[in-house]
Structure formats: structure tokens, C-alpha cells
């Protein structure tokens, strides 16, 4: 039996999921988004149906790729027989009322320049029950993604540390680029130093 997928959302996470589902020939059939324009644009890119009404979403597996404060409200509107996967790094799955809930959280910075790039980061997983847990393992294998099961509190801590690393390093780099530009310094001169610095960190 072919399993069909749906995505709620049309931002970076939704685009990332759509690209990789289609890349692995998985059956993405529906997308719903509050942002009609970006939702329709994503549907046109991956050739699936845009659902203006969330009540029309009825796929077997539904990704909820929305802001953290919208997740609980969305989950209450989805079919109870579907597997419903939040992509949030901070959601507490124990507080989710959906019986087949789970978490599918890519630990990586996502942007329009890397949606379809090979994904090297792990997917942090959590499941409400054994059926969802087993399915998450199968899904990661189909998508060729590494995975790790984590509890909600552990995933939240990992997320916060990842945000700190990402934002702080980006801020320092941007400051350095700005200073170099203002003082007429050729960044090519600093590239070997930067590469060695990042290599030393890792």
C-alpha cells in the first residue's frame, strides 16, 4: 500500500520536507498553509494539491511544520488515525493530545539555498507509541537520514545549544565581514585563517 503524506506549513522546514519526500519518490499529496501564496508556490514546485481548508487534510502521515506556538492548535484539527509529526525542537510530546503523535526534528539550519542538498545532520525523533516509533525508523531509512531518539527535554536542550552555536558564530562572522568591507580588507586573505579556526573548533 502506498502511504500518502501531507505538510502543514510552507516555510523553510516545509520546503525541506517536500523536496526530500519527492526526491525519494514518496507520495506527497497535500499541503496546507496560512500563507496561501507560498503554499500554492510550494505545491506547484512539487506537484501536489494545495488545501485551503485544514479539515481537508487526510493523509496517512502529516508533518506539522509551523511555528512552535501554533503546533497544539493544529494538532487538535488533524485526523486521529493519521501519524502526525511535529518538526519542532522544543515541543513537549507528553502534552500532545494526538494519539499517534511524534517528533521529526532535523538538527540543521535550513534555508532556500540548501533545501535539496544532501542532509548530513541527524533527525531527532520521539514517538507517542511503538507503532509511530517503528514507522519513524522506516521513514528515516527511506529518506536516507541518520536519526536519534531523544526525550522532549533532551531535544529541547540540544535545540537551544544548536541555536546558540549557530547564531553566535553567524553574528561574529557577519561582524568580521562588515569590518573587513569597511576597512577595505580582502576577505580572501583571511579565508585560510577562518578555515583553520573552524577546523580547530570541530
Write the layout of secondary structure elements.
Elements: E1 4-8, H1 12-23, E2 27-32, H2 36-46, E3 49-50, E4 61-64, H3 71-75, E5 83-86, E6 101-106, E7 123-127, H4 130-143, E8 147-149, H5 152-182, H6 187-201
Parallel strand pairs: 1-2, 1-4, 2-3, 4-5, 5-6, 7-8
Antiparallel strand pairs: 6-7
List its traits:
eight-stranded mixed beta sheet; 202 residues; globular; alpha/beta
How is this structure best described in words?
The chain has 202 residues and is of the alpha/beta class. 44% of the residues lie in helices and 17% in strands. An eight-stranded mixed β-sheet has the order 3-2-1-4-5-6-7-8. The longest helix has 31 residues. The chain is globular. The mean pLDDT is 90.
Helix content: 40-55%
How many angstroms does the end-to-end distance come to? 44 Å
How confident overall, as mean pLDDT?
Answer: 90
Helical/strand content category: alpha/beta
Number of helices: 6
Strand count, sense and closure of the main sheet?
8 strands, mixed
**Beta-strand percentage?**
15-25%
Brief sketch in words of this structure:
With 202 residues, the protein is α/β, with parallel strands linked by helices.
Amino acid at each position: 500500500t502506498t502511504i500518502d503524506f501531507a505538510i502543514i506549513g510552507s516555510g523553510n522546514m516545509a520546503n525541506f520536507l517536500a523536496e526530500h519526500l519527492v526526491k525519494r519518490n514518496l507520495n506527497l499529496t497535500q499541503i496546507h498553509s496560512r500563507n496561501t501564496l507560498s503554499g500554492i508556490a510550494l505545491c506547484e514546485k512539487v506537484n501536489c494539491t494545495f488545501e485551503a481548508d485544514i479539515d481537508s487534510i487526510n493523509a496517512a502521515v502529516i508533518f506539522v511544520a509551523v511555528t512552535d506556538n501554533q503546533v497544539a492548535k493544529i494538532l487538535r484539527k488533524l485526523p486521529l488515525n493519521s501519524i502526525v509529526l511535529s518538526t519542532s525542537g522544543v515541543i513537549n510530546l507528553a502534552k500532545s493530545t494526538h494519539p499517534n503523535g511524534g517528533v521529526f526534528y532535523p538538527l540543521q539550519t535550513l534555508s532556500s539555498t540548501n533545501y535539496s542538498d544532501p542532509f548530513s545532520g541527524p533527525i531527532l525523533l520521539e514517538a507517542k507509541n511503538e507503532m509511530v516509533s517503528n514507522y519513524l525508523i522506516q521513514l528515516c531509512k527511506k529518506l536516507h537520514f541518520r536519526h536519534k531518539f531523544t526525550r522532549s527535554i533532551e531535544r529541547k536542550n540540544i535545540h537551544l545549544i544548536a541555536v546558540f552555536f549557530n547564531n553566535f558564530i553567524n553574528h561574529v562572522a557577519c561582524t568580521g565581514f562588515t569590518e573587513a568591507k569597511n576597512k577595505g580588507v580582502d576577505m580572501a586573505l583571511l579565508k585560510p585563517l577562518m578555515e583553520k579556526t573552524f577546523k580547530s573548533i570541530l
